[in-house]
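Technical appendix A lists one of the benchmark inputs used to test multi-chain prediction within the project. The record comprises two sequence entries:
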Amino acid sequence: MSLDLNRKTVTKNAFRITKRRNYTAIRIRVPGGHLNASQIARIAKIAEQFGDGNLHITTRQGFEIPNIPFAKMAEVNAALRPLIEELELEHGVKIDNPAAGYPAAGMRNISACIGNRTCPFANTDTTGLAQRIEAVVYPHDFHTKIAITGCPNDCIKAHMQDFGIIAICIPEYDYDQCIGCEACVKACQRKVTGALDMNGSKVVRDERRCIGCGECVLACPISAWTRKPGKYYRLLVMGRTGKKNPRLAMPFLDRVNEEVVTKVIANTMAYVDRYILRCLPKEHIGYIVDRTGFNVFRDEVLQGVVLNPEARMAKTIQWPGYNTLNDANLKTPK
Amino acid sequence: MSAYDYSREEFAAVFAELQKTYQIYGPKRFVGRGRFSDTDLVRYAPLASLDELELAEKSSLSPKSLVFPADETIFHFNDHEFSQPQLKENGEIIVLLRPCDINGIARLDKMFLENGGQADPYYQRRRQRLHFFMIECRESFENCFCVSMKSNTTDNYEVALRFAGDRVAAQIKDQRYEGLFGQKGRAGSFSPEFVSENDKQVELPTVETMPAEMFNHKMWEEYDSRCIACGRCNTSCVTCSCFSTVDLFYADSRQCGERRRVWDGCHLDGFSDMAGGHSFRKNKGERMRFKAFHKIYDFRKRFGFDMCVGCGRCDDVCPEYISFSSCINKLSRTLKGGSDK
């Protein structure tokens, strides 16, 4: 008896059509890329029980278990329930029927670098932020890629996302405490933008050059540099890979707080709903922004957003990238 | 000498009463101000209330800034005269600190008030405002080796305090506090105990004269590549007392300005730079040797006891995991003809 599947329902349920007929693969979300050993064991067990014992670690820090017969979907969903409870519901995600598997797959797993749970450079707990954003944006059907990185080193490649969130800090200087050892100046000039310079025996910071990486705080031997209380982010938008026009995400908002970041992403879902081309099977947000123009995007996503006083905004954005059809530079070597 | 017991609330009232006359300094937690994000900084600062006193964690910076600020103006000058700046506040200060730090400040006293036969007026005017209230310290923090340095005990305090859960006990050595402390507390029998054993033990060199070959010994070489010259061991140390002087001119003036003294340290680049481009101790290993000898040999030759008090802050804060206490042990082993590994 041949299978009769609604491909769209299956895909939304985080199963996918694979090259092997009658077999699927399930994608497991791990918001923030962090899970405990018993959860990994549970995922391993699903692979052993329903698949062929193999697992794939996805580029977005989830897991994909291949070679599962479509016929086993309901059983797999039942087995996923504790994972959905622990990795989704526990973080405030609303899923009506957690026994029925994942309710959406458009919103991709929110990936994050290891963050300040481990890394000394990170300006925040990136996994925690990923989990909080997950609660706002998931489940959702629009194809959206979000990643969070703890510092401008951008180990998670926030520059390749629809929304790339870079945790930054606003360094504060205690003039009286500074002994003029120049450690911060050397660090900033060698590794960053040269936002710091000596003025006599003290340090001056060029506020416009400062990217908030926190190298000065790390370098200071006497805590004359510390991080201003609060969490601050740079929000990059509309980076992408793909067959048409790969490009880097660019800074849209800088030194904004979590509330701003979250609201802008949530507002984007409404913007997409209004402007997406429904004649296409799917359309990436970046191409919608290309069509409406940056100004329309900006005005729609900032509705109801109260920018914190430190915030800066891009006047306009041009995305560095290239069109793949432009092959004038590609020649066959003689 | 008398002793009193208090509930925490009662002692908070004593604390508030003291604040009418004294500014009170102690280790204070600055949330989120640590080197890494979402970590705290504990350092000495004025306490608004008893609740701000941080006892659970060792301060990463010592109380020495109370007598020897990181950056202090020593005189203002113009083209024909100079003047010594007044202290902004000149009230008396109670500082809550542990025995090691009391002993640390006693070592600074030697350096600033006795060394060279001339009392340093900038140090002196801050020092004479201080009243030591000793925080009883019965358990070591990580990296403490005060017992080895014999700085675990002291009687150099006016009041000793034991903080035990929601109870506070005080021993009053200075009569001036008797009335205030007696009023709110019940007579008790508290007498401070001192930590008698640290996890970390240090064996000090026993040589009368440091053999000349130790100056160029290969045991220092490993620090050439390990030390990054960040200077944290110096800035965190309660007994490091080195400074540089810096002149600065006001805005566009060529005549008016001020001279400051600013903390410097033997591990920092530029510390031994001299006119003519000379520089001693270019290698980090030489700096480690210089510091080690000063802390546990040279100072003793002059003053009869070691400079290092074993507070262990240098080991706490070194980003390269260099342990000064291990270095002293290594030096002692080497002197005895053993391995420098």
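Chain A touches chain B through 30 residues (CB under 8 Å). The longest helix of chain A spans residues 258-275. Comparable benchmark entries are summarised in Table A2.
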